[in-house]
Amino acid sequence: MDQQAIQDFYPEELSYCYGCGRQNEHGLHIKSMWEGDETIAVYTPQSYHIAIPGYVYGGLTASLIDVMERALPPLPHIGTPDDHRGPNQRFDLSLRRSTLTSCVRLR
Questions:
Q1: Residue range 48-71, pLDDT digits in tens
Q2: Does 12 fall in a domain?
Q3: Which of 57, 64, 69, 75 could pair with 51 as two cysteines, CB 3.0-4.6 Å apart?
């Protein structure tokens, strides 16, 4: 993923998201790119993200999905009136199985 991340185009005032904001010192700094007509992100959990050895904390999984689902408007709309990014008002997630601590690729 050598191309510039979608989050790098966010205006400064919209760059504080815990999941993907470059201005959030303690955030996850998730970076997403375009791959054809899909957005992708690759994230490697840190050792402090574990729930039990070998598995990540479910809240991290939810954060990754939240960023990919809600925080990524189509690139032409960033910073325009059609930019509908923002916090979710409702977010339901049921995991089928636990997430391993290896690198996660999101689409």
A1: 888 888 888 888 888 888 777 765
A2: yes
A3: 57
